[in-house]
Amino acid sequence: MSELFDAVDALVASRSTLPPPAERKRLRAAHGLTIDEVATALKVRRATVSGWESGKTEPRPPERDAYARLLKQLAELYPVPAPADAATPVSAVAVPATFTAAPAPAEARPLSTGPASEAADMTATENTQTSSAPAPAAAAPSAAPRPASTTRPTASTSRRPGAKKAAPAATPAEAPAGEVDPRFENGPLAVVDVEDGKVLAYCVGGLVLDVPAKSLPSLVDWTLKEAKLGQPKLSGPGRPADPLIVLTAAACERYGLPVGLTEEERIAGRIPEGHKVIKQLTRADWQLTKRGFGPWARIYRPAKGSDRQCVQLCIPSWNALDARFWGSAAQLPPAELARVLGAYAARVMTPRGSTAVTGLELMTALHPPTYAVRDEETGVLRRADDKTPGSLGKDPVDCAPCEAPDGHPLLKDLPRFHVRGPAEKLFEEAYDWARPLTDDECLRSNLVGLDVNMAFAAGANGLVVGLGEATHVKNPVFDPKLPGSWLVDLSHVDLSRVKVGKEWVELDGALLPSPFTPKGDRPEGPAWYATPTVAYAQELGYDVTPTEAYVRYENGRYLDGWYGRLRDAYLTTMADLGVDADLSPEDFLAAMDGYKSRDPQMAIVVGAVKATVKGGLGKLRERPRGEGWTSGERWRALERPTWRPDIRAAVISRTRINLHRKMVKHAAFTGQYPVAILSDCVVYAVDGEGPLDFLPYREGKPLPGGFKLGVNPGLVKHEGTQTVLWGEGAREQFKAPELNLARYIKDGNLTDKDNGE
Known about the structure:
By secondary structure, this protein is of the alpha+beta class. The protein has 21 helices and 22 strands. The strands form six sheets. It has a seven-stranded mixed sheet.
């Protein structure tokens, strides 16, 4: 009889009731879940869940029953929107409606900790302002405030200064899908300028508003009460973005601010606390974060109930838009600057500081540390005591001793001049490797460089990282699915004989860099490695026996949403520039030729997105920046839950391994070996002038697992071509047989100038 019951249960499960495809997507987005997270929970592929949400396919048992269970629970939390005149029910758990922003730009190079320290102050500000907007009865996705157009607005699409819009028919919580959120109908930001004595605010889409404010405090008031600027939240438990006001040099003069900073102020990163404008703000009960009044100043009042009052300022003439990351943005006219920053805001998020700070803040915006719950008795919203699943929480956690950078408090008992070796310190960094050319390579005509698109973002995609504290384990059994740091000897891995797929192949190991060290040197004994590095040693066919580890049992794919948003931003903006994702290799190379000149403003956005990837990851291990810090003391960045050097190390490890895997596949198939690597750029000596002259394409299809031309993250583009004679001449000039030619392959200029990468 039990078998009959089982058969009946299976029959019922095969017809489990599911909501329509659009509703499935709404429920997932309302809870801040990514497609990847749902796919992982149901043990299916990402494309499978995507098909369910688009209606192209329907789930079958046993996944169907589990999927129906998930949607049923989400439907209880986020019911279908009630009519405008219906009473709002009180639920046990309620989160404000999700308003998703339009996609936008990205890519990366070697990692840095980014410019001035800004993110550490965010935590203090957010703690002061913790509040939640009233929860609606339902969470219906809405369109972005004003999706960036790929064409410039014309006079017919612009509003005249001071023009009024009709009052919206719906409240923010009731805004139907596909419509602009009325709270932010003028976009995420405005560039404030002075023309002919008149103060104007240039918004996205060609909109221009009159600004009546006579002082900076009144400008802040106007921004919050009348300007209707801001951006919807990026995830269910999150908060809307604060409005951004960009002050031109003329606007600085109008509001009593210096046009530029003195050398002393530039070093301090702020104007003096006694400045008259700061006194004006103080008298009006406005506050500044611990950063003070600098290029990216945050002005706020402590939140009262659901009323969050905070405005972000950006002052380009104070170097807020660093040319290394924003190109010539600071020199653009107000309307064009609004277009650039508006596109970035719509596709990434409203800038919260430098691109590095924004990259870090994007992680938090997609995985807020806490979520809103409604008190069953009072109906009042409050922040939950426990952290949001999948987030890093609101409290910082200590790293493992091996993950700590020099000067960290965990290392204060070490002798003063002690230098930690590989067995004491985790050192996962990007490649900086080169070797002399062989006699055969010297006879080749050219050196051709390949650059991996969005290399570090691609390294973050699908990566399982720790979400909590590390657990110290002695003599562990290595688990490639468990994130952590492992002390293991990999010196026995011989690149002359490795597994490629399931087959052993013979290679010239002397011509390949070691995958285990940034300099490409073969390890000489035990060393600390992140999980992806150790897993790759196993993949190459070698046993690994760790003697010690710091592992994180609480883990997840924390960076998936971050990667997805930056990937979409990058691909959308590259498409604006005429480089689409579905081009043939030949058409892709042709489209990349001079692509930045097709729309210089969107080219700026591409550069900013790349910097967001690189800088955001660098901020995960931000170092002290002055402030009277001495070795062994804590510094401000350590108080952030997003200070996670282990996550940064895992991303770099996986990125380096991804590149090495491609080089091994290429060598096994073609017999060609790299001569230089700098981060995500690899150089080959070949007879030919471009990638198609040596990459093994057959009938338009690339070598599986090897290098593939294309704009998508992880694929490659042509970085540059120089002659072999140029390379040998450069090494002779610098008297360095192993000069890294990848550093100069792009344009051939032999310089050490900092280009931001």
